[in-house]
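User: Okay, second chain of the day. Same drill as before: sequence in, structure tokens out.
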Amino acid sequence: MSVKAAPRLRGQPALRGLVAAELTSMTGTQLSAVAIPWFVLGSTGSAGDMGLVMGAQWVGIAVIGVVGSHWAGRFGPRRTMLAADLLCASLLALVPLLHRYHYLPLTLVMAVMFVVGGCTAPYLTSQQLVLDSLGGDEVLLSRANAALQTATRLATLVGPAVAGVLVSTVQAPGVLLLDSASFALSAAIVWQCLPADAAAEPGRRRPALVAGVRALFTDRLLGAWSLGLALAETAWQALFALMPLMALARYHDAPSVAGVLLAAFGGGAILGTLLVHPALRVTSAQGLAVAGRVALGLAFAALLAPLNLGQLIGCLAVVGLLNGLSGAPIVSVRLTRVPAATRSETLTVATAMALSGGALGWVLAGATAQATGAATALAATVAVQTAATLLFVFGAYPARAVTRSEA
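Assistant: Same drill. Structure tokens below.
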């Protein structure tokens, strides 16, 4: 099979706007991910309260996510992203403001994080709808998704380190104001760079979410890959939760080693997304996705071996690289197979599944490690990742190509 020359991404202001908005808001989110726990600990002195606040964000992702993502289809992706950015900016600014005047009950902080988390799914669904509007084939969409994922991972890699410095200098309330400003700036970028939403057809009703479920699971690749992404997200978040425990159990120096392990994964993931473009010159998006996930499953399983610190760092870097290399093609292949009539609803269900899987990963990793130890929890995580790999292989072969004209 011949592989077409990769189309160029120049002349795509919407993509540049998406990348800039994602880098801006995600960097702010990473600041809050560090500042919020410190803020709650400093205000209440309770680790339990900190857990409740951070848990409220994950509950918001799972509960509001399904309903909220439907807004992307009803109101349009640009309006949905603007509303999410402005809402998050307002709520995050409210926390330090009320703290200054000594009126900030814990329930209010939890409510803020619940809503901020709930904005995640509709925002991600809207991003995919904007990318889909660019047109093009799997190659163009893979490259566009790789650019977007590079921005996300760069913010994830740099944000926590910057947040640590800022929390110690301007204090947690000041960092929350910076996060609020990042969402406001993201809204300005979305307003300026993204095209206006198409007007709704008079009298046309959006399909119900059940139509998205039906479309997702009547297509073998769509269903298997969406379940695979949900399981993979469970494994990723469980791995991130276990890294401090792994560092403590194996190397007796949890804080510094855990930071190095996360950086190794993040650096590998960024490199992987940068390699998507050259890789697509020699193989198809679907071939890259499946090969990358099979290799990823093998590299993930290697984490069970008795590795020294250098070997573990190298293994995590490879795992991150393969995740970055295969992630964008997976999203793009899946997007091209989604029926146009139910695209928003189908992406809603798929996004909610993946985010719920991530929340489940954090919960199960902590509970399993507490009950049976970090080693058993890591083995369970590898098993989940292996199941995800098998789903990607199952969904791809045999899978008849679906064109946009058929959708």
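DSSP finds 14 helices and no strands in the chain.

User: Thanks, on to the next one.
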